[in-house]
Amino acid sequence: DTITSLSFNVFSSDQGNYGINTPTYFCLDDIVYTTINNKIQNITNQQITVFPNPTANFITFSENITEAYFFDLTGKLILITNQNTVNVSDFSAGSYIIKAKLNNQYLTTKFIKF
Q1: Could you tell me the CA-to-CA distances from 57 to 7, 8, 96 in Å, in that order?
Q2: Residue pLDDT, tens place only, 55-103
Q3: Given 13, 46, 79, 82, which residue has the most CB atoms within 10 angstroms?
Q4: pTM for the complete prediction?
């Protein structure tokens, strides 16, 4: 069987005349997926991290990346780099998501700037 779509329903007990009265947020994190090529199952378990985490100034990737995209939690692109050590001292305090390319695949991690 193949999954061709995925949907979610969000419910709230705070219903008004025009729908949900309070903001509704939904987030997916640490998604693991399986791909099948020529009936041979390939499972990707490769991970990437940054350290120190949390940080005030610099982060370093646990692996040699070829490119990385830094996003804030609203999805706004903050920085694109190909450096393994990145100066984040100009970032505002908060949580960030990184999409990094490693061995021709993109991996996601997150860090906290204080």
Answers
A1: 39, 38, 14
A2: 999 999 999 999 999 999 999 999 999 999 999 999 999 999 999 998 8
A3: 79
A4: 0.62
